[in-house]
Structure formats: structure tokens, C-alpha cells
Design goal:
The chain is mainly α and 559 residues long. The protein has a domain of 97 residues. The two termini are 26 Å apart. About 2% of the residues have low confidence.
Length: 559
């Protein structure tokens, strides 16, 4: 109790000092009428850095995010905290009012409710039974989760929602920590969607590439994207690293501690942790035979209809190819359409099977939707930080700070790090891509750099920062649907993300020097595997743990 009180005392003191600094050093002069947002300089970094720091110190994401937004609003309000608070409120309202962001919030609740009735119908139980009959140990469950993440490629949100929710009961059975499950989910969400041939991400990315290219450029945007895939080192390494960890049964850093705790005790999450989706499991209807079709049909409908509506909202037809339509589609709204229809079809299908009445199915629907409330609040706060940072000119300041050191050899590496830092601070990979792509592509063309390599660096860096950032929407969703404490997920995942990014950085240097992509991938995979063995041995020795980790006794009675 004293420790917690001390943390909040430090937080209060830190918050007051920030406000005093804002007033004393005349932030008012930084926003003179007619000046651009770039004039805020290093002050534009304060909200993002404050949010990350408070998240790690307080272990309470929502309070940390709201505090950072208030500080950012106060900077914009020339040091006036009252105006800063009103700016915070208006910014949050603006996020909710935005149609695209409102569709994401709606998706949160609808897909949460859909998962609730899928579990209620017994479809998820049948799915779990299918894998349970084939599962032998924790290793096989982690590999099954990895495969599931590869299969749900259409969108990172859908990936996190379904893989996290559906594999959680099976993961719990073999006492895999919630932190580990959320890592598997997160590492097969954005990284998979970023490089897959057809997904919501690809439509967005190809559209950005096309707008940044000169009108007479001879190579089509989608072709450049395809050429960039072998150079997207971070995403490829992040996906491969999950497989290596699952296959070898090795972990290091905080994740090793979490896994050992889960395997040797009844604690699937930390003692003082708060799983975002709650500790209770979804309700399952009694006296009904579980059928896997009750899970397969809603999933297939959601994915298939999402693609259909993407094609329609993108203006698909005789004059537009599927990929062109996908690039112009309202992807999030299309996914909401597909999820809504999947929900209603599922309820009718379950009613026909006499599982329950639609009225009674509303209870499990609301249970699932209610589990998304806290995550939705965090999501709005994270968007608000992005909006405040945009007003402060955070991204522009970062890009301008490194303009002078660009060269064909170093450009891919610099673009990768800048994109990663912006995405980490702002919590948005798409926003980062939208900021850096129009700057990096013309620069790459101007200095005759390898264009597919630079494009890959943009996409990989944006995904990396978003992947491990505590204010990222995908990170929040991975924590939520896996039932993990959000800060615990971030702390255990960051060492793995940094390992993959370090190897990716080496490959961007060698690729910039002309080494072929396939050679880089082979060497990079080898370094990654070697790093896993070395780091896991060091961590195990320091924590007094030996490999392989003990398997949980399935016959042991849960307390």
C-alpha cells in the first residue's frame, strides 16, 4: 500500500512540476498567432514521452494517457491548465465523433459481443476440443496459436479479436501465461497484415505509395509493395521469432519470469495485475452439443463479407480491379458491416438449432461487449494523444531533426528508426505511414536510393513502433482479447520487439550496401535464433531457471 501511495505521490509531483515548467518558461510564446506547429520544438515530444513514462511507472494506462493529453493540451493553451483541460475534453469528443474512429469503437463492442455468443453457442468449445485432442504440451498450443494468427490475415483488429479470445481457454489449460498469449497474438496481428498480399493494411499502404510517387513513375504502386516484402525485415523476423520461441520452448527477460510463474503456480497473470477483459470466462450454454460450425460460419462470414464490402465501398467494378478497390475502400466500416451481418446470421443459426432464443442470447452478447469498455476508453485516450501530437507537430519535428544526415546507404536505416519512434510515441502505425511516406519516397527518388527497400523500412518501422508501444490500438486489443494486463504485456513484449528490430537494423545497413534480400533474411534468421539461445541462457541463469520449463500437470486440481 505504501509503495502504491509513493508512486502516486511521485506522479502528482511530476505532473505539478510539468505544469510549473510550462507556465514559467513561457510556452505561451510558442504558439503566437500565425506560427506553425513546428515552433513547439522539443516541447512537442512531452505528451508522448510522458504517456510512456507514466504507463511504465504507474502501471495504469488510462490515467497515464489522460494525464499526457491534459499536459499536451496545456502546452497548446500557452500554459493555461484550465484551457488545457477543456482542450482535452474537446479533443476526446472529436475522436469519438470521427466516423472512422467511431467505426473502430463500434467494432470493439460488436466483435466483443459476437465472441460472447460464439462462446455461448459451444462453437468455440468445439474448436478448443479439436486442438485439445491434438495438443500434447504447451509447445504445441503456442504453435497452434501462431498458425491461427497466420490464418486470420485480413486485418490486425480481427486477428487480435479472434485468435486471442479463441485460444485463451486452451492456453490457460496448459498454463501458458497471459503475457505470452498476448505476445503471440500481437506478433501475428500487425506484422502479418502488413505483409500479406491482400488485407486492409495493403489497401492503405498501396494508396500511400501511389500518391507519393511521381505521376510518370514507370512501376505501379502495388508492384513496388510486392518488391518491398522481402525487405520488410522487422515484420518477417517478428513472425519467425514467435515460431522460434514456441518451437524451442525458450524465453528470456520478463517473459521467462512470467512463463515460469504460470507453469509452476496457479497465477496466469501477475499478482497485482488487471487483465483488460476481466477474469471471468464467457458463459457457455448447457446441454447442447458443441459444433465447430457454430464458430467457423461466423468467422468465414465476417472475413468474406468484409472483403466484399471493401470491394463495394472502394468502387469495385468493371473499371476497377480488386486491389484498386481495396486501396480506396473504407476498410474499417467494411469490417463493421461484415461483423454486424455475421452477428445476426449467427443468432439466427443458433436459434434454428434450438441453442437459445435471440432474446436470451443478448446476455452473452452484452457480457462480451462489456469486456471492451475499458479498452475503448484507452483507445479514445490514445487517439487523443495522436491528435495533440499532430497539433504540436511532433512527427514533423522528429523528421526535420534528422534531415541533414540522409544518404542512400543510411536512408533505409534512418527511415526505419524514425518511423518506429514516431509510431511508438503516437501509437499509430497508419498515421506514421501517412506522415513518413510522402517525405521518404520523394527523398529516396531524389538521392537514388533503393525504393522498395525504403518503402519496406517505412512499413516495418511503423509496425515496429506500433507493435511494442503501450498506447498502440493493436497492442491494447491484443491485451484485451488475450485477457492480459496491458502494461505486463508491453513490458514482456518489448525485449522481443527490440531483439527483432536490432537484427532488422543490421539488415537495413547491409541491404542499403547492396546485399540481396534473400541473403539478408538467411543471415538475419540465423542471428535471431542465436540471440534467442544466448539471451535465454543468460536470463535462465540469472533467474535460477532451467530449460525445458516444467509442464503444468493437467490432473492437478485448480485452486
Amino acid at each position: 500500500m505504501k509503495c502504491k501511495s509513493k508512486k502516486y505521490s511521485i506522479f502528482l509531483l511530476f505532473f505539478v512540476l510539468i505544469l510549473i515548467l510550462l507556465t514559467t518558461f513561457g510556452i505561451a510564446s510558442a504558439a503566437e498567432e500565425g506560427e506553425t506547429a513546428k515552433y513547439y520544438g522539443a516541447w512537442s515530444l512531452v505528451p508522448s514521452l510522458l504517456a510512456v513514462g507514466l504507463c511504465l511507472v504507474l502501471k495504469e494506462a488510462l490515467l497515464s494517457l489522460v494525464t499526457a493529453v491534459i499536459v499536451g493540451g496545456t502546452i497548446l493553451a500557452n500554459g493555461n491548465i484550465i484551457t488545457g483541460i477543456t482542450k482535452t475534453v474537446s479533443t476526446m469528443i472529436a475522436q469519438i465523433a470521427d466516423p472512422w474512429e467511431a467505426s473502430i469503437l463500434l467494432f470493439f463492442f460488436v466483435v466483443g459481443g459476437l465472441m460472447g455468443i460464439i462462446f455461448y453457442s459451444g462453437g468455440a468449445a468445439a474448436f478448443v476440443d479439436f486442438f485439445r485432442r491434438r495438443a500434447k504440451n504447451a509447445r504445441s498450443i503456442q504453435l497452434f496459436g501462431w498458425i491461427g494468427g497466420l490464418v486470420i490475415f485480413v486485418d490486425d483488429y480481427a486477428n487480435a479479436a479472434f485468435v486471442g479470445s479463441l485460444f485463451r481457454p486452451l492456453s490457460d489449460r496448459y498454463h501458458i501465461s497471459r503475457e505470452k498469449l498476448s505476445y503471440i497474438v500481437d506478433s501475428t496481428a500487425s506484422p502479418v497484415s502488413c505483409i500479406f498480399l491482400i488485407s486492409t493494411w495493403i489497401g492503405f499502404q498501396v494508396g500511400l505509395i501511389g500518391k507519393a510517387l511521381p505521376a510518370d513513375w514507370p512501376v505501379k504502386p502495388y508492384t513496388i509493395f510486392l518488391q518491398s516484402i522481402p525487405f520488410n525485415f522487422y515484420c518477417l523476423f517478428a513472425i519467425a521469432f514467435v515460431f522460434m520461441i514456441a518451437w524451442t520452448g525458450r524465453d528470456f527477460g520478463p517473459m521467462l519470469k512470467a512463463e515460469y510463474r504460470a507453469r509452476t503456480t496457479n497465477h496466469l497473470w501477475g499478482e497485482n495485475s488487471t487483465p483488460l477483459s476481466g477474469e471471468s470466462e464467457y458463459e457457455v450454454v448447457k446441454n447442447v452439443k458443441p459444433r465447430m460450425i457454430n464458430m467457423i460460419v461466423p468467422l468465414v462470414l465476417m472475413v468474406g463479407l468484409s472483403f466484399f464490402f471493401m470491394y463495394k465501398t472502394g468502387g469495385g467494378g468493371a473499371e476497377k480491379s480488386f486491389m484498386e478497390a481495396l486501396a480506396d475502400a473504407d476498410s474499417m466500416l467494411s469490417i463493421v458491416y461484415g461483423t454486424f451481418i455475421a452477428l445476426f446470421v449467427s443468432m439466427i443459426m443458433y436459434w434454428i438449432q434450438h441453442i437459445d432464443t435471440p432474446a436470451n442470447m443478448m446476455k452473452p452478447f452484452l457480457v462480451g461487449a462489456k469486456g471492451m469498455l475499458y479498452a475503448a476508453m484507452i483507445q479514445v485516450s490514445a487517439w487523443s494523444i495522436g491528435a495533440i501530437c499532430n497539433d504540436l507537430g511532433t512527427a514533423e519535428y522528429i523528421v526535420d531533426a534528422v534531415k541533414g544526415i540522409m544518404s542512400p546507404l543510411l536512408l533505409p536505416l534512418i527511415v526505419f528508426f524514425i518511423s518506429a519512434f514516431i509510431a511508438f510515441c503516437t501509437g499509430t502505425s497508419w498515421g506514421t505511414m501517412a506522415i513518413t511516406t510522402p517525405i521518404a519516397i520523394p527523398l529516396a527518388i531524389a538521392i537514388n536510393a533503393n525504393l522498395p527497400l525504403v518503402v519496406a523500412a517505412i512499413l516495418a518501422g511503423s509496425t515496429m513502433g506500433d507493435h511494442c508501444g503501450p498506447i498502440s490500438d493493436t497492442t491494447v486489443m491484443s491485451s484485451t482479447f488475450s485477457g492480459s494486463d496491458h502494461i505486463d504485456h508491453v513490458k514482456t513484449q518489448i525485449p522481443y520487439a527490440l531483439t527483432c528490430s536490432a537484427v532488422a537494423a543490421i539488415c537495413y545497413i547491409t541491404a542499403g550496401a547492396g546485399l540481396p534480400a534473400i541473403v539478408n533474411l538467411i543471415i538475419g534468421m540465423g542471428i535471431l535464433y542465436g540471440a534467442l539461445i544466448v539471451l535465454s541462457n543468460i536470463s535462465a541463469k540469472s533467474q535460477g531457471i532451467t530449460f525445458p520449463l516444467p509442464e503444468w500437470d493437467l490432473n492437478k486440481k485448480e485452486n
